[in-house]
Automatic annotation (TrEMBL):
A Pfam family it matches: DDE_Tnp_ISL3
Protein name from the UniProt record: Transposase
Ranges that cross the membrane: none
Source organism of this protein record: Candidatus Kentrum sp. TUN
Annotated InterPro entries: Transpos_ISL3 (IPR047951), Transposase_DDE (IPR002560)
Top-level taxon: Bacteria
Domain Transposase IS204/IS1001/IS1096/IS1165 DDE: 40-135
């Protein structure tokens, strides 16, 4: 049903239905609270073309995505670090790939957190080094 159809059915204006919808969507998709985070993962994904890369931060305990940022460098995470600092979350561990930008950013912003490299990237690096030795 369209917004106009709902407005006509209820006998109210289109703008009122649109405002209700906007408030509902804001409630459903508002940035998640960070205060209970303990373990997070940081990774990037390539969207292709002009879109480039997105950096994604995920709560490893719940599986929820807590941040999506444009780019794949340390700058992409600056807004997340600010939100995290204000939340006073006690991050214990951060899983990430072995990119120096992420390692440095984690060490600067979460010096007490344990840094963990994800299994996929460790095996990938191992296979690359093994292939180099065989050549």
């Amino acid at each position: 049903m369209t917004i106009q159809a709902v407005a006509n059915h209820l006998g109210v204006g289109w703008d009122m239905i649109k405002d209700i919808q906007a408030r509902y969507l804001q409630h459903c998709f508002d940035k998640p609270k960070l205060c209970n985070l303990k373990r997070i993962a940081i990774d990037e994904t390539y969207l292709g073309g002009r879109s480039g890369y997105l950096t994604i931060v995920m709560d490893l305990d719940s599986g929820a995505v807590v941040e999506v940022a444009q780019g794949k460098d340390a700058q992409a995470l600056v807004p997340f670090w600010k939100r995290l600092k204000h939340s006073r979350a006690k991050i214990e561990a951060v899983a990430t790939d072995m990119g120096l930008a992420y390692i440095k950013a984690v060490r600067e912003n979460l010096p007490k957190a344990t840094l963990v490299f994800d299994h996929f990237h460790i095996i990938k690096l191992y296979n690359e080094k093994l292939a180099d030795l065989r050549r």
